[in-house]
Amino acid sequence: MIRTIKSGTHCALLLSRCTSKSSRSTGARHQHSSYDVAIVGGGIVGLATARELILRHPTLSFTVLEKEKELAVHQSGHNSGVIHSGIYYTPGSLKARLCVKGATMAYDYLEKKGLPYKRCGKLIVAVEREEIPRLKALYERGLKNNVRDLSIVDTKGIREREPYCRGLMALDSPYTGIVDWRLVSLTYGKDFQEAGGTVVTEFEANDISMVTESPAGSTDGMNFPIAIRSSKGDEVHCRYVLTCGGLYSDRLSQISGCSPEPRIVPFRGDYLVLKPEKHYLVKGNIYPVPDPRFPFLGVHFTPRMDGSVWLGPNAVLAFKREGYQVFDFNVRDFGDALSFRGLHRLVMKNIVYGVGEMYRGIFINAQVKILQRYIPELSLSDVLRGPAGVRAQALDRDGNLVDDFVFDGGVGDVGSRVLHVRNAPSPAATSSLAIAEMIADEVESRFSL
Ligand SMILES: Cc1cc2nc3c(=O)[nH]c(=O)nc-3n(C[C@H](O)[C@H](O)[C@H](O)COP(=O)(O)OP(=O)(O)OC[C@H]3O[C@@H](n4cnc5c(N)ncnc54)[C@H](O)[C@@H]3O)c2cc1C
Known about the structure:
- Helix 1 runs parallel beside helix 5 (181-194), helix 1 packs across helix 12 (432-447) and helix 9 packs across helix 10 (364-372).
- The chain folds into 2 domains: 3-75 and 182-261 and 404-447, FAD/NAD(P)-binding domain (3-Layer(bba) Sandwich), CATH 3.50.50; 263-401, D-Amino Acid Oxidase, Chain A, domain 2 (2-Layer Sandwich).
- By secondary structure, it is an alpha/beta fold.
- The chain has helices spanning 44-56, 94-113, 132-144, 155-161, 181-194, 249-255, 331-338, 341-349, 351-362, 364-372, 412-415, 432-447; strands spanning 3-4, 12-14, 34-40, 62-65, 82-83, 117-118, 122-126, 151-154, 169-173, 177-179, 198-201, 205-210, 226-230, 234-243, 263-274, 285-288, 300-303, 309-312, 316-317, 383-395, 406-408, 418-423.
- Strands 1, 2, 3, 4, 11, 12, 13, 14, 21 and 22 form a 10-stranded mixed beta sheet that branches.
- It has 12 helices and 22 strands.
- Flavin-adenine dinucleotide binds next to helix 1 and strand 20.
């Protein structure tokens, strides 16, 4: 039986507060389950966009539908916590522009809200001579991207900034910072609710279709022609749907008839943590010079807002989307990844790198060896295994990492009322406020809001 959401059903409705613990509705305070726009996915992208939309359109009704009990518990709650400055990305690309703009917007927002952050800076360190030309090219790239306050420093400059770090030359980015992105996500959610938006948790959207008849007892008639059904049989009606499903964005897109590609392939990143008595070794972010042959940035040293220091992450294929333990396994997720030709191609192109990452994930002394190139004083006994995050990596069928945004709709009447954000490329936390503006523009133009 399909039910329309009201309090007392499976879903939890967060009416007035958005905290790290979801507060459930208690009485029959929920007036209706029909909204102008429903946003599926309560991660940082969905919440930032919901906030932007309701601030632009205060007379419309909005809801965020999130499958978990709490908001922002996946990528937005499992990341390095860095406010990136936008050095790495191809000049002129959307990713570069959104990151640079997003970082400035993030700092302004954090100041305005009084949220804690630290502008502790970042050094990208060349430890081999052959890395120096790449470091200099990165500097030029950063300048082209209008990254603030960049400079090249020598061995002495490195020691002044990071007394325990060794290197021949480094790119210094004092504008880079750290923050708790989950807290930021929850604050976006709070803004959204204070502006009148509704957050529903424990609502896993698994069907989107046209309403064929007005629901019994509804006074809305057919004004809200889209029905979103949850896996537990609850139902929300709306005029338009936006999905920001992170690791499930491809599956959500398929619900309204979109192509299965680009496919999301989950990559788990395991962190090591520095023992508290060794925190003095690291002051700000220390990153390697990225190797252009490999798809990820490489393991780095990152201080956290709680005073801890994380080292990593590596990047290994995860056997389960949203699986944070090494042995987490899901037959469908694993089968999907394994049968995807895009992954075969990616693996073929990066086989040595991939095996190395797996090896270093199992044998942490190998990981420590790499880290010692930057901080020679670090030893195996200084580190412990830490938490993990899983990245939603969009891949095309030729094995290329999809680096830019992918918007999709679907087919038929439903497709004309749905917008899927299939890929919001990392660092989507840093870029979230800029991304939200861009998605809101897209929503407005597609749906004539
Ligand atoms: C290891 C790691 C390190 C990173 N480090 C940084 C960093 O330092 N700085 C930075 O800026 N970025 C970083 N990123 C990237 C950043 O965290 C992500 O780009 C960003 O959090 C993505 O947000 P999102 O909202 O798209 O996805 P998510 O946070 O994953 O949110 C998607 C939400 O959709 C929900 N959902 C999915 N399917 C359904 C459904 N059917 N119904 C209802 N809800 C659904 C999920 O439960 C989830 O809450 C990192 C990422 C990883 C994995």
